[in-house]
Predict the structure of Trehalose utilization.
Amino acid sequence: MNRLLTAAAILVSFLASSAFSQNATLVFQDDFNRTESQETKDEPGNGWKTNSKNRAAGNKQVDLKDGAMYIACHPVADHGVSVVHDAPFRDGKLEIRFMLENEKDTLGLNFADLKYKQVHAGHLFKVTIGTKSTELADWKTGLMDLEIRKARQSNKLSDAQQEMLKTKRQRFKHPLETGKWYSAVVTVNGQQLSLDIDGKRVGSLSSPGIAHPTKRTIRLAVNKKAVVDDLKIWSHKSGAPLNVLLIAGGCCHDYENQTEILKQGIESRINAKVTVIYNPNRRTDTRFKIYESDDWAEGYDVILHDECCADVSDPVYVQRILAAHRNGTPAVNLHCAVHSYRWGNFRKPVNIGDDNASWYEMLGVQSSHHDHHAPIEITFDKDQKENPLIVGMQSWTTGNEELYNSVRVFDSTNVLASGKQTRKNGKPWSAAVVWTNEFGPNKTKTFTTSLGHYNETVKDDRYMELVIRGLLWTTGNLTEDGKPVKAMAK
């Protein structure tokens, strides 16, 4: 019976792999069926590297025998064994056969990008398989984030950081027999990470760090012992579009036409699908039915806020909107979204944590009013000319527009462009018009421009370029030269 079950599992895995391979590119594979020229030092071959020289005084920790790779941490090692190979992909699958010979053995599958300097040693996320349980962890926005790691090492993690870290990993009970071979499949799709063993789902984790645009390196991480064989890494080439939710409506703007301008402009420029939720109500207290559900943002990669709801002041309703962003769903905010969801004395600078501060904390800038409609001179920050969001972009002057004031710019905000306008009284004034922010315990990326009152502005290729880059940047799909990653390009 056991042989039949094993054969069935292998058949299921083979069929799944065959179907997947029709829509994917094989990035790397290794059957480890080779010999070494000596037996005193690591000689993994096929482009693999190990950390034995630096961490185990050069002692052998990786051995090729019987057509498999045997990994064992040497007694003098001051760190677990790391066996490393380049295997760049964005979304895809890793397939591997493995065996754990002892009850305390584990096999870690560590995905990394050494070019990404905001985390320790390029760590992005990890799957750790043990004999009793398995753990899936987002390290990019969790333990290996430099700020979090520093606070943790000095025992200075805040309560909020500790609560956030709990959301960055999931542990699943899944007992395995020692000395037995298993087949594992790790699937990466956007923010979703999942693990199957012998054709059965063990568990999954959804977290922003998993969506990092390029997983450049795979590390086999072993603290005691593990045996691996038949490794394959696939890059999925389905061309799945960026799933954008555009929410628009409320006071004072031609949202009926602007939603069409935005949808067509986005979908014609990048590989994206824009779903539009439009409420034709033109009141300042306009509400949206979609926000009545706790899981309103489920299934979308990014939210494009284009509502104008200044007099919606229900904290429960607003916190439900913000919960999606606190939990990691990025936001791009346009024009009157900056003047939405406000109550109390919003003309006075709020403090973080105030009852009426949450929406501003997500935006990164608090604004209360605008002057008359007149052209705005837009100037990009020269010190940030290499920032992917504005690289290559030139200053310009809009047609008639609304310049929103800046009551408070939060410390987490990075202002990329300012606008200068002549007031109705003839005096010049200026304010931030393009900025980024990181919001909540997950440091969710948000991008905002306060421009966009008139259709003529929204139609402008320069404005549309800002919106496009904002969508790409918040979702990790913008290259260093301000272009969409290959999967998003048209």
About this structure: The domain at 2-236 is CATH 2.60.120.560 (Jelly Rolls). The first helix runs from residue 2 to 21. The CA atoms of residues 94 and 169 lie 19 Å apart.
